[in-house]
Design a protein that fits this description.
By secondary structure, the protein is mainly α. It is built from nine helices and no strands.
């Protein structure tokens, strides 16, 4: 049905939108340029003060969808936590392309792992993104080439060299 999931305190609206898209796809969704609401962040708001709990809700929803879509362990591991055990939903993938879901999430995780210098997981996520059909845009291909052609130690050395030279240029000013 169209009711909010009572398990979630933070991402109940996101879960409802995912259910809508899984049931109806994007049919009936209209894109408009008008601003229809405003959102304010402040230190006492749930979004700011309890952001880790938002992530746990989001992860439970994404884990369940990705697990049912056949995502690889390197992707599932990122979203797995105790709350994922409590949330159970059977997702209907008739209107959602499972492969693209996995491809885009794997690509996003590749960027996160790459940024944190976990090149092994980043490489694995890029390979999964390619397997599941992520579009080969310039940023994606650049990341793929770096991860597959450069040695991780060389990448760390280049990063350190770049950081050192930018620090030295700041001191010189």
């Amino acid at each position: 049905g169209g009711q909010l999931e009572p398990l979630f305190r933070y991402s109940m609206d996101m879960e409802l939108w995912f259910r809508y898209m899984h049931r109806f796809g994007l049919v009936g969704v209209k894109y408009i340029d008008d601003i229809i609401c405003h959102f304010r962040w402040h230190k006492e708001s749930k979004t700011v003060a309890e952001s880790d709990d938002f992530r746990k809700d989001d992860n439970a929803i994404l884990f369940t969808m990705l697990n049912q879509s056949g995502a690889p362990e390197v992707v599932l591991d990122h979203f797995r936590h105790p709350r994922t055990e409590a949330y159970q939903r059977n997702w209907d993938f008739e209107k959602v392309d499972k492969s693209l879901l996995i491809a885009y999430v794997a690509n996003d995780l590749a960027m996160k792992h790459y940024s944190s210098h976990d090149y092994e997981k980043a490489t694995e996520c890029v390979k999964w993104a390619m397997k599941y059909g992520h579009p080969r845009n310039q940023a994606f291909l650049s990341k793929y080439l770096k991860l597959n052609l450069l040695n991780p130690k060389l990448m760390d050395w280049l990063r350190d060299l770049k950081n050192r030279s930018s620090t030295e240029s700041i001191k010189a000013e």
